[in-house]
Amino acid sequence: MTRKNMLDQKKHCRSVDVLIVGGGLIGSSLVCALSAAMGAQNLSVLLVEAGPARQGNRIKTGSDRDARSTALSFGSSQILERMGLWHKLKGCAAPIYEIAVSDQGRFGSTRLTCREYDLDALGYVVENKALQSALYEGVQAHKNVNVLNETRVTQVVPCADGMNVQLEKAHQNIQRIQVGLVVLAEGGQSQIATGLGIKGREVDYNQNAIIANIMTERSQCGVAFERFTESGPIALLPLPSIGGKHRSSLVWTVSSAAAAEMANWEELRLIEELQQNIGQRLGSIKSFGKRNIYPLSLSVPQEQIRPSLVLLGNAAHTVHPVAGQGLNLSLRDIEELVSCIDQGLEKDLRINEFSILQKYVTKRDYDQNQVINFTHSLVETFSSSSFFKAFPRKLGLLTLDLFPALRQELVMRASGKR
Ligand SMILES: Cc1cc2nc3c(=O)[nH]c(=O)nc-3n(C[C@H](O)[C@H](O)[C@H](O)COP(=O)(O)OP(=O)(O)OC[C@H]3O[C@@H](n4cnc5c(N)ncnc54)[C@H](O)[C@@H]3O)c2cc1C
């Protein structure tokens, strides 16, 4: 445990302005955004994370807890810049200059380039480990935050002035804290939200994403590939080369049954199968690397806010990773939430004033619905091999090339400008 974490654990207070449940990418990003805001930086913040503390840039129990990479939109890189974090990430981020979308075994492919739209890059790929490290440093730099690790929030109960929150740490007494605003950033299918009776729309795609950092003969040269196959979409994102070795971040979507089988395949068999699906665009695949498997679903709660409560990140909307939108959408949510809090504080409103949260959801409603519907329809259209669904799929790729306005829409969404 670091000295700061020990001190944090000793001096935790009985009442705080903001309590964040979950120190994943979203909970940590919120702390950094609060820290960079004019008025909100003065709020006392408690970040409660069930997992272990990090030591320096490493998580105590191993640095590979999350082996994924994230495609950050151009807009997200600007948000991270405003949080004071982008300079830490820029050096290890691989720019995406082009996105090549293709459909295996069918006529039709399209390329979207940053030049066409006068952007420096459509986005950047960063390894989640690097993102977590930058966020960790950002959290440590916030003067008004306490961090509790290996601690779970087990109960959130409304009270006169906000919420009464119950915390549990193994072999220690239960603690109760009075909170002005509770932020649920505890990931998908939030147990606290369920406990509060918040219901939602759940779609199990019956698909899993196989994640790996593969090595290839040729470099992606800033081109991200999205290939739609009979079994599901395959995304190959460029990663910076290491020691002259070309690396790509693979997100390979397959049915849950196929994923269960593939989890036991030898590396050679995985390489052969992947090579068959993506062809020779990157030359031969040299290694597959460690694989991680994630179940995929859509989860959208009916309520994102209640007095003194707001849901963020996967707790607010878990979307399929096909279009790389989940974190990007949440970063835009975070920036808006902090801006609404700041404006409220400027008008002398208290942090538990419900109008702050009402303003936030009203402002975010359109973007969230657009991303959720766009991603869900992409999965529906491209996941099917039936003639009736494959036909619009083929048309989709053709129309994209024929109608500049549609291409513009896709690029703007990919770059985070819409
Ligand atoms: C395969 C894959 C690829 C993806 N690629 C992209 C991409 O390219 N671009 C993009 O924008 N998005 C992408 N995403 C989405 C992105 O990863 C998510 O939006 C993001 O990880 C959500 O983070 P979170 O902090 O909300 O949840 P989580 O990462 O699940 O974090 C929740 C945290 O809360 C803690 N916790 C849970 N319950 C409690 C409790 N009761 N008390 C205390 N702590 C608790 C957990 O320990 C955890 O650390 C991808 C997702 C997947 C699955």
In brief, what are we looking at here?
The chain has twelve helices and 21 strands. It is α+β, with helices and mostly antiparallel strands and 418 residues long. The chain has a domain at 3-66 and 130-202 and 299-379: FAD/NAD(P)-binding domain.
Entry keywords:
418 residues, alpha+beta, FAD/NAD(P)-binding domain, 8-stranded mixed beta sheet, globular, binds flavin-adenine dinucleotide
Produce the secondary structure layout.
Elements: H1 3-10, E1 15-21, H2 25-35, E2 45-48, E3 54-55, E4 58-59, E5 69-73, H3 74-82, H4 86-89, E6 94-96, E7 98-103, E8 109-113, E9 123-127, H5 128-141, E10 145-148, E11 151-159, E12 162-169, E13 175-184, H6 191-195, E14 200-216, E15 223-229, E16 232-242, E17 245-255, H7 256-262, H8 267-278, E18 285-287, E19 292-301, E20 305-306, E21 309-311, H9 326-346, H10 354-382, H11 387-402, H12 404-415
Parallel strand pairs: 1-2, 1-13, 2-10, 7-15, 13-21
Antiparallel strand pairs: 3-4, 5-9, 6-9, 7-8, 11-12, 12-13, 14-17, 14-18, 14-19, 15-16, 16-17, 20-21
Helix pairs in contact: 2-5, 2-9, 3-9, 9-10, 11-12
Bound molecules: flavin-adenine dinucleotide.
